[in-house]
């Protein structure tokens, strides 16, 4: 453990990149670790990110990494984080602060002591690392699980999308499907309805839409189909419909899928018992990105409310970085 950093950021998506850029500009020695396995890798275009509307998600990450690495305090490591474990220190206690998770005791981070040990498995020829840091930022986002349909991955990112705000405009006026197995389908259908008057909600026999919700959706011209889905079908590279258990194929040109999301934080196993999380397992943070563990911060999709637009995730990363930088300076 020869290297010590002010900050280690886990994840180089919008939240991690924005946090990293802010911190290296504050001259904090910052290590950014990423495995280059983003959940939006299948998406061809990202939308809603100012000055970069329509850019590929991979291109956005490339530009962000180049900007980060242009600063002397920046280091990038291509690797998969194996563990983040605390190092015992005896910091002076500060008054507890109130945040989204309630009150907890904060500590003085200004003494320079490393508080976390981070180990990685290097990827693409990079070495394994065993390093320490005064602070850690969790920005690894979410793992998504799509409904178990044979061909759904073939259409995901082109004809089917998960982010309504990101891709609704491109689906305007088309015959759309909303496929999901959760209990929030009615709310998502209402959002989609601002772009099309031809929408059907497919619950695959699992998703929950109450009778009252179905009646209100019908007033908006939205139908609910509760039959089991066999597959998503298409031809010549274009989705054409939803095949149902009775053999009917309902014509659809594209639409949205509601995945199940879980935080990608398996490497935090030694700390999970101490982390405050919500019912979905998302990491609870205060209004400045602090978790319930002093020195550990989180930003982006792994925090409530979960998946969000790239611009919002980047903003949360920059906000957490600003507070982290101030915390490292200690009390007045």
Write up this protein.
This is NAD(P)/FAD-dependent oxidoreductase. This protein has 332 residues and is an alpha/beta fold. The chain is 21% helix and 29% strand. It has helices at residues 14-25, 57-69, 152-155, 164-167, 185-192, 211-219, 310-329, and strands spanning 4-10, 30-34, 74-86, 97-99, 102-104, 116-122, 129-138, 142-145, 160-161, 176-180, 199-202, 223-225, 229-235, 238-244, 249-251, 254-258, 260-263, 296-298. The strands form five sheets. The protein has a five-stranded mixed beta barrel with strand order 1-2-3-6-7. Strands 9-16-10-11-12 form a five-stranded parallel sheet. A hairpin with a 2-residue loop joins β4 and β5. α1 runs parallel beside α2 and α1 (14-25) packs parallel to α7. The two termini are 32 Å apart.
CATH topology of the largest domain: FAD/NAD(P)-binding domain
Give the structural class. alpha/beta
Strand order of the largest sheet: 1-2-3-6-7
* Largest beta-sheet characterization: 5 strands, mixed, barrel
Helix share of residues? 10-25%
Question: What distance separates the N and C termini?
Answer: 32 Å
> Would you list the SSEs in sequence order as H and E?
EHEHEEEEEEHEHEHEHEEEEEEEH
Shape descriptor reads: elongated
Mean pLDDT: 91
CATH superfamily of the largest domain: FAD/NAD(P)-binding domain
If you compute it from the alpha carbons, what radius of gyration comes out, rounded to the nearest whole angstrom?
22 Å
Top-tier CATH class of the largest domain: Alpha Beta
Segments where pLDDT lies below 50 for 5+ residues? Answer: 93-104
Number of strands: 18
Strand content: 25-35%
- Give me the CATH architecture of the largest domain, please: 3-Layer(bba) Sandwich
Tally of helical runs? 7
Overall number of structural domains: 2
């Amino acid at each position: 453990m020869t290297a010590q950093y002010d900050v280690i950021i886990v994840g180089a998506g919008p939240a991690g990149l924005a946090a990293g850029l802010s911190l290296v500009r504050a001259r904090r020695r910052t290590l950014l670790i990423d495995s280059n396995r983003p959940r939006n890798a299948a998406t061809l275009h990202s939308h809603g990110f100012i000055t970069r509307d329509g850019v590929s998600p991979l291109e956005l990450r490339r530009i962000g990494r180049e900007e980060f690495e242009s600063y002397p305090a920046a280091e990038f490591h291509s690797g998969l984080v194996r563990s983040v474990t605390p190092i015992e220190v005896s910091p002076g206690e500060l008054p507890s602060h109130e945040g989204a998770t309630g009150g907890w005791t904060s500590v003085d981070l200004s003494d320079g002591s490393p508080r976390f040990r981070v180990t990685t498995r290097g990827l693409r020829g990079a070495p394994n690392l065993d390093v320490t840091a005064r602070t850690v930022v969790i920005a690894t986002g979410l793992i998504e699980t799509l409904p178990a349909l044979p061909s759904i991955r073939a259409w995901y990112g082109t004809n089917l999308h998960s982010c309504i705000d990101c891709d609704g405009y491109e689906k305007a006026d088309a015959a759309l499907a909303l496929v999901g197995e959760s209990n929030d389908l009615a709310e998502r259908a209402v959002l989609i309805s601002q772009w099309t008057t031809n929408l059907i909600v497919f619950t695959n026999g699992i998703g929950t839409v109450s009778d009252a919700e179905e009646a209100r959706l019908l007033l908006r011209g939205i139908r609910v189909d509760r039959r089991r889905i066999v597959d998503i079908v298409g031809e010549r590279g274009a989705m054409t419909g939803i095949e149902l258990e009775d053999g009917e194929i309902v014509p659809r040109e594209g639409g949205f899928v509601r995945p199940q999301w879980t935080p990608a934080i398996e490497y935090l196993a030694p700390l999970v018992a101490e982390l405050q999380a919500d019912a979905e397992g998302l990491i609870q943070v205060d209004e400045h990105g602090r978790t319930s563990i002093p020195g550990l911060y989180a930003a982006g999709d792994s925090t409530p409310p979960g998946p969000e637009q790239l611009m919002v995730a980047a903003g949360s990363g920059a906000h957490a970085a600003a507070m982290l930088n101030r915390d490292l300076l200690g009390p007045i």
